[in-house]
Design goal:
It is a single chain. It contains 2 helices and 10 strands. Strands 1, 2, 3, 4, 7, 8, 9 and 10 form an 8-stranded antiparallel beta sheet that branches. It has a two-stranded antiparallel ribbon with strand order 5-6. With 212 residues, it is mainly β.
Length: 212
């Protein structure tokens, strides 16, 4: 007979995630492979495809919003059947590092809108373009790595990886300079399904070996 357990405290996740953005969309076959002795944070840092956005605020939130249709019949006062007719998935965070690179991501601009260097006399410039008729929205891939489920007392190398194949920034973005608050870019990404698999992405729990 199985023994009743109140629960498993090591399955409670607390903590923020490291946030990376790819300047292109992703597919299930192009994301970097996991390394046995490395956190996925280190794997993406070593890759030229991904940019670390740095500090974030208020963590990471993924929201799934199914849309159901209803079938009403005469014989019952409630609906007799529900059917799924739509799905919306979004991911939200706030970029706490107010760099022009992060603002470009939040505004869903093309990378060619950013030019120059801060050390030059002309400076680093983000062109606030109004766009043009027929301009395609900029989709990017997102990867976040945060705490996972597992026994940290025995192994501090548990992590959860969130991968979104196609992400598009769709919400208003505010740029501020305030006396009593940091300038942050709150950004909400709409996730779209990848063409071949029809998948928005995946969430992976993994353990790696700490070699430090």
């Amino acid at each position: 007979m199985a023994t009743y357990s109140r629960g498993t405290s090591t399955n409670i996740i607390v903590g923020a995630a490291a946030f990376f953005v790819a300047d292109t969309t992703l597919t299930p076959t192009v994301t970097p492979s996991f390394a046995t002795d490395d956190s996925y944070r280190d794997t993406l840092t070593d890759s030229l495809t991904y940019d670390n956005v740095g500090y974030t605020s208020n963590g990471l939130e993924i929201q799934f919003q199914p849309d159901f249709g209803e079938v009403a019949v005469d014989q019952v006062l409630d609906v007799a059947k529900l059917f799924k007719q739509g799905m919306t998935v979004s991911l939200a965070t706030a970029f706490a590092e107010a760099t022009l690179e992060n603002l470009l991501l939040a505004l869903a601009y093309n990378s060619d809108q950013l030019s120059g260097t801060k050390s030059s006399s002309a400076g680093r410039t983000l062109n606030l373009s109004a766009g043009d008729i027929g301009e395609c929205p900029v989709e990017r891939g997102l990867v976040a790595i945060g705490p996972g489920t597992g026994d940290c007392a025995a192994s501090a190398e548990v992590e959860r990886v969130y991968i979104a194949y196609r992400a598009l920034s769709i919400e208003n973005v505010t740029v501020s300079a305030k006396r009593d608050a940091a300038s942050m870019f709150e950004v909400s990404f709409r996730l779209l399904p990848e063409d071949t698999s029809g998948s928005y992405g995946k969430i992976i729990d993994r353990t790696h070996t700490n070699v430090s």
